[in-house]
Design a protein that fits this description.
The protein contains 20 helices and 32 strands. It has 633 residues and is an alpha/beta fold. Bound molecules: adenosine-5'-triphosphate (ATP) and magnesium ion.
């Protein structure tokens, strides 16, 4: 058995990486073999598998049909509407062909953009695969995003067709999409020529004559359609996906075709340990990169079944995910820490009520995994919990544990080691020099980035270079804009985002370090720390905490005592400079729809600024709580 260390070394060393990735490239079918594994003569632009022609949809569906036509491909569960549907590879392939023929009838050809603004329904996945089949570039926008967010993405991607639906549903409440969509199109400069609509019968859906087309009758016309796959150059774009916008204006991440397919297929083997007959349940949303990669493409590339879930983790009750694991014999579960924190508040009996024996591994990504959450899950379910760190930009994990290569012990609080293909560096922000063990630095990647990572920003090569490759002093490295530290054993820890730095009287403090300290106080369940402008000190830290037992802060006296106590905790652990000027108690924190803490929203309110484009909040009421808390101060 190869050691992971040598596997990783081989994947990045200039002498061996071509041979390494050539082997990985055998995991997919090529219509025309590539003649060059990597072209890197115009750094930072890397082109993988040059000269090769392939198609992602062919690799996700067609090539499996002879051997797995009757095997499950897509398991759709909606606890919002009480529906469940299972599609075999044959059935899924038929649906994708119907969708592809329908899109073709609306003028979609290779290179054209299709914006997908959909709830978590099978048609969304059909549309994505239909696009890659046709060589069209999809851009999935998280369903239910406000019109302004949608309009910005329509103008950037300039789609010919938008695929949408009457409504989504969240927590049992119907969210009509069509009014948001019409408003988004009205706000945008660019107008799509057609809007293809899936009518779920959830909300009224007025049609715009000459533009709106119903999918059901169009599908009927194409029941027996077979649309041949368009053979794409390996570096042709497959899709554009906008980043979450946690730190600013979203960036249109452009993904290639061949590199992405190879990276995902390879990750399923080496990181996600997929075997024939497996079922992966990735409880994310197709609007996020995790959904693109591990709900849609990777499981199908690997020829296994994927579970697509519309609903919350606790409706109808906190056992629903475990019930799905039992019923469909899920082998890999993939979700975000935020969901696990929600489950942790549920009756622990749910964990023992269901047969979870099929489950082999649980993967978490998207935000820092705190120790108590990791411990609860590992102990409660009794399966390894694998944290993995990555970004929309990379499309697949940067840090993680490649358990399919070698099972190394994990460390709580660490997503692990650099994934093969990634030459990860930690650099001093001011000098650009490499950091030593236990020295905090910016996590950066030496080019070329491995297959699967962004090839550029959509329509803006210059912004791609400037944004990502020119911020480390004296070196052309890709910056992740996250802080990290590496221990003596080579395990990395993510310490937060580089723009979440608070500068108190010349001391640079990370929001996350202070948050971790406050969260170690037994009364605190969750906390956000931000820097607020201060005439004297430049900035001061302010904390907004959610208590485990809210009644602990019912009276002003109790709040004051607890605030003092929390401050003492920080004093003891980090020193007085890190002590927040105030600790406020709220019952929820502002988060993005993908569950990430939106510190800049809190900061804007604290500094009396508009929260601007922050309408992508999970629950706008969280902002009111911040405002209310400040009123008393
Ligand atoms: P934007 O770039 O538009 O501000 P975003 O960074 O939130 O948005 P994503 O690409 O969805 O958009 O998120 C990637 C970021 O999420 C990482 O850079 C990191 O900050 C955080 N992250 C992801 N996985 C982990 C993890 N396992 N541990 C810690 N942080 C993580
Ligand atoms: Mg980011």
């Amino acid at each position: 058995m190869t050691s992971y260390a040598s596997f990783h070394a081989r994947s990045i060393s200039p002498d061996s990486r071509a041979a390494f990735w050539e082997e990985q490239a055998r995991l997919i079918d090529w219509e025309t073999p590539f003649d060059q594994v990597l072209e890197y003569d115009k750094p930072p632009f890397a082109r993988w598998f040059v000269g090769g022609r392939t198609n992602i949809c062919h690799n996700a569906l067609d090539r499996h049909l002879p051997s797995r036509g009757t095997q499950n491909a897509l398991i759709w569960v909606s606890t919002e509407t009480g529906q469940e549907r299972v599609y075999t590879y044959d059935e899924l392939s038929a649906e994708v062909n119907r969708m592809a023929a329908s899109l073709q009838s609306l003028g979609i050809v290779r290179g054209e953009r299709v914006l997908i603004y959909m709830p978590m329904v099978p048609e969304a996945l059909f549309a994505m695969l239909a696009c890659t089949r046709l060589g069209a570039i999809h851009s999935v926008v998280f369903g239910g995003f406000a019109s302004v967010n949608l309009a910005a993405r329509i103008d950037d991607a300039r789609p010919k067709v938008i695929v949408s639906a009457d409504a989504g549903s969240r927590n049992g409440k119907v969210v009509p999409y069509k009014p948001l969509l019409d408003e988004g199109i009205a706000l945008a400069q660019h107008k799509p020529s057609s809007v293809l609509l899936v009518d779920r019968g959830l909300a009224p859906m007025p049609r715009v004559a000459g533009r709106d087309v119903d999918y059901a009758p169009l599908r009927e016309q194409h029941l027996d359609a077979f649309v041949p796959c368009e053979w794409m150059e390996s570096s042709d774009p497959s899709y554009v996906l906008y980043t979450s916008g946690t730190t600013g204006k979203p960036k249109g991440v452009q993904r290639d075709t061949g590199g992405y397919a190879v990276a995902l297929a390879s990750s399923m083997q080496h990181i996600f340990c997929a075997k024939p007959g497996d079922t992966m349940f990735c409880a994310s949303d197709i609007g996020w990169v995790v959904g693109h990669s591990y709900i849609v493409y990777a499981p199908l590339l690997a020829g296994i079944a994927t579970v697509m879930y519309e609903g919350t983790p606790i409706r109808p009750d906190g056992g629903i995910w475990w019930r799905i694991v039992e019923k469909y014999k899920v082998t890999q579960l993939f979700t975000a820490p935020t969901a696990i924190r929600v489950l942790k508040k549920q009756d622990p009996a749910y964990l023992t009520q269901y047969d979870l024996s099929s489950l082999r591994l649980i993967f978490l990504a998207g935000e820092p995994l705190d120790e108590p959450t990791a411990r609860w899950l590992t102990e409660g379910v009794g399966k390894p919990v694998v944290d993995n760190y990555w970004q929309t930009e990379t499309g697949w994990p940067i840090l993680g544990m490649a358990r399919g290569v070698e099972v190394l012990p994990g460390k709580l609080g660490s997503p692990g080691k650099p994934v093969y293909g990634y030459d990860v560096k930690l650099v001093n922000e001011a000098t650009g020099e490499d950091c030593g063990p236990n020295e905090k630095g910016v996590l950066a990647i030496e080019g070329p980035m491995p297959p699967g990572c962004l090839s550029t920003l959509w329509g803006d090569d210059e912004r791609f270079v400037k944004t990502y490759w020119q911020t480390v002093p004296g070196r052309m490295l890709y910056s992740s804009f996250d802080w990290g530290v590496r221990d003596e054993d080579g395990y990395y820890f993510i310490l937060g985002r580089t723009d979440d730095v608070i500068n108190v009287a010349g001391h640079r403090l990370g929001s996350r370090e202070i948050e971790e300290s406050i969260a170690s106080h037994p009364a605190v369940a969750e906390v956000a720390v931000i820097g607020v402008q201060d005439a004297l000190k430049g900035q001061v830290a302010m904390a907004f905490a959610v208590l485990r037992r809210p009644e602990q802060a019912e009276t002003a006296d109790a709040r004051l005592a607890l605030e003092g106590d929390v401050m003492k905790t920080v004093d003891k652990q980090l020193g007085a400079v890190a002590r927040p000027a105030r600790v406020f108690f709220v019952s929820m924190l502002p988060k993005t729809r993908s569950g990430k803490l939106l510190r800049r929203a809190i900061q804007a309110i604290c500094e009396g600024r508009e929260t601007g484009d922050l309408i992508t909040l999970e629950d706008p009421a969280a902002l009111e709580q911040v405002r209310d808390a400040l009123k008393g101060a």
